[in-house]
Amino acid sequence: MPVLLAITSAAIWSTFHFGPIGKPSQTAAECTALRQLIVTEESSGKVSWIEYRKLVDEFLKLDPDSSDRIPLIEKMAGSVIEVLGHDLTIYSELEKFPKCVLQSKRDEIPGFIQETETAINFLSGTTPIDGTYFDPKMGSWNTTYYEEYLSALDFLKNEKGSRNDLPAQDADV
To answer: 159 and 31 in contact (C-beta within 8 Å)?
Structure first.
């Protein structure tokens, strides 16, 4: 009897995860595609982020009265908008496939989307923050903005054989 129960349990589990004929389930296929999108977007975004951080380093070396500040600020804004565009694509896809996202991270996604859209619109000069529009001619830049590049892969549930271990509370959600 215990053997029969084990076989039945394994059959139900494999049908849920791989479908009735051994193919990955729809959810597994969606999560794999999402993981691939994130890797692609992050590799492109990281190139832009590295360029942005190099521009920040250049900016920090400039004299406060340098005529090179304004064009450099414009370049930094453009680089950050490019990085944020990749981030926005990732966050939008994470929101579309919540079953692929760790339960503990799901509630954060809408806030990330809103913050990213707000930053893009601000740096594009279309939307103010606290009543102030972005103006490179002011000659200032928050050099600590986007200091670290983090991976959205940490938001995903693990696939079998992936690099992170799932916390127990997120394993079956």
So the answer is: yes
Q: How far apart are CA 139 and CA 71, in angstroms?
A: 9
Task: Calculate helix-pair angle for 26-61, 69-96, nearest 10 degrees.
Answer: 170
Distance CA 167, CA 157 (A): 9
| Domain tally, the chain | 1
Q: Is position 144 within any domain? A: yes
Where b means 16+ CB within 10 Å and e means fewer, 43-71 reads: eebeebbebbbebbeebeeeeeeeeebee
pTM for this prediction: 0.77
| Rama region for 162: left / alpha / beta (φ>0; ψ in -120 to 50; rest) | beta
pLDDT, tens digit, for every residue of 38-72?
Answer: 999 999 999 999 999 999 999 999 999 999 999 99
Domain that holds residue 56: 28-170
Name the residue type at position 166: L
With respect to residue 7, please indicate whether it lies within any of the assigned structural domains: no
